[in-house]
Design a protein that fits this description.
The protein is mostly helical. It is built from 13 helices and no strands. Helix 2 crosses helix 12, helix 3 crosses helix 12 and helix 6 runs antiparallel to helix 8.
Length: 256
Amino acid sequence: MECHKFERWWLYFGDTKTIITMTDSKTIKSITKYCIDNLDLEESGKGWEYYYASMPLCVIDSVFSIGVLYEGVINTIDRLSDHYKIQLRAKKKHTLPDIKNQISTTDFLNLFGTDTIDFLASSIFKNRQRTSSKNGILKVEAVIKFLNILKDFNIEYYQDISRVIDNNSFDFCIKNIPGQKSGISLKYFLMLAGSKDLIKPDRMVIRFLQNASGKKFNLQDCQTVLSAVTLELNIKGYDLTPQLVDNAIWNYQRNL
């Protein structure tokens, strides 16, 4: 059984009727039609974007993917994987890897040993991007801070993630990392790590929703709107989650 079967989105977002009424139903229907007309909904989720072998790799993806072309993120993770000789992708889709086959958060941090942030950025990740242009830190440093917070909360494997979903203390700690205040990386991390009901509320999603409806949306709107759209799509016979709709939007927008 596919992983998302266990995590229907109403578990996270409450009563579906409430969600629908939070957004104009005509707008939701318009966006739903736009999705059907333009997105490859049947193929969404068949790639390997969400199936890392170990949970710490989700941290790297979520931090490095903000504000850049995704191809660069893939190259960064590939270099890291090659250097440390670690498995990149899980052996099966839609199924959490066995704990015995994962690299724990602690062991992943230990891979870095005593190497400095500067050395890791220049020689291992080979990526010196910063979390923001103003007062940002190297994304490598943000990754290490993120991993240490996971360790502090005893989140070592995919199987532990449920303990920090909707955990305000965890959210506060992650958002306190320089450049992470918006929470986009946090939501994207939780999505990559198994929360099929979350999306990555970024510029691609906003642009798609605006093109679909002619209306402006902010980052906070995106989750609510795509949750409602997913419900409408499933009423029409699809079997989707907000994550899969997000993935279809991402693939569509990147090819424009």
